Amino acid sequence: MSKHMYFHREIDQLKKMILELGTLAEDRLRRASAILETGDNLEAKALMTGDWEVDDMEIRIEEECLKILALHQPVARDLRLIVSIIKINSELERIADISVNIAKRVLTINKTKPTNCLIGVDYRSMAAKTMEMVKTALDALVTEDASMARKVFLMDDEVDRDRDIAYKSVVKDMAAHGDKAACLINIYLIARHLERIGDRAKNIAEEVIYLVEGEIVRSSSDPH
């Protein structure tokens, strides 16, 4: 097998690995979103103990990228692909980590909330939008579609608005029920976790645009 053919076989394998990691990250987010609805302590603990699988895959992908860079010294589009995968690799690992943080937050709320501390924020819509952002960003990566990637930016605006709504709701409840502040803060932090996952999906979309168009894109940062 020629060096050129060997290189492209390694590139194909690397693409499969990053998509596998994407599937793992999506699974963690999907399970965390379900835990928000059910409050299932056992599932939350199961999600937390399975985090090693994502970490292991992230390390393998990074090592593979560094090996390809050292052995083949890719240029132009091939180099952009490797650089993009290195960055997307890190973003997917963080999405999985933040999903685990959501599970931890639910455990904390279940353990410490007063019996009459009702969760006044419905996170189903926000979680669904966040999952759609991640899915769209990964679909854009698979199809190398920059226009699809840009749709993630608009979706991020919606998630930011949902976070602001959650903030106002919690502040209102805190003013009326100051004794439940600890519980309410944890409830709001779930919105922050979901928003951060949205930010990671947006970062992936930016890397897809860089891969396809060679243009470094940084969407406007949210002030919060």
In words, what does this structure look like?
The chain is mainly alpha-helical. It has one domain (3-213): Methane Monooxygenase Hydroxylase, Chain G, domain 1 (Up-down Bundle), CATH 1.20.58.220. 83% of the residues lie in helices and 0% in strands. It is built from seven helices and no strands. The longest helix is centred in the middle third of the chain and has 37 residues, at 76-112. The mean pLDDT is 91.
Sketch the topology as an H/E string, one letter per element. Answer: HHHHHHH
Low-confidence runs (pLDDT<50, min 5 residues)? none
CATH topology, by name, is Methane Monooxygenase Hydroxylase, Chain G, domain 1
Helix content: over 70%
Radius of gyration, in Å, reads: 20 Å
User: What is the CATH superfamily label?
Assistant: Phosphate transport system protein phou homolog 2, domain 2
Give the CATH level 1 class: Mainly Alpha
Examine the secondary-structure arrangement and name the CATH architecture. Answer: Up-down Bundle
* Largest beta-sheet characterization: none
Number of helices: 7
Q: What is the CA–CA distance across the termini?
A: 53 Å
Shape: elongated
Would you report the number of β strands? 0
Question: How many distinct folded domains?
Answer: 1
Hey, roughly how much beta strand do the residues contain?
under 5%
Q: Give the rounded overall mean pLDDT.
A: 91
Name the structural class. mainly alpha
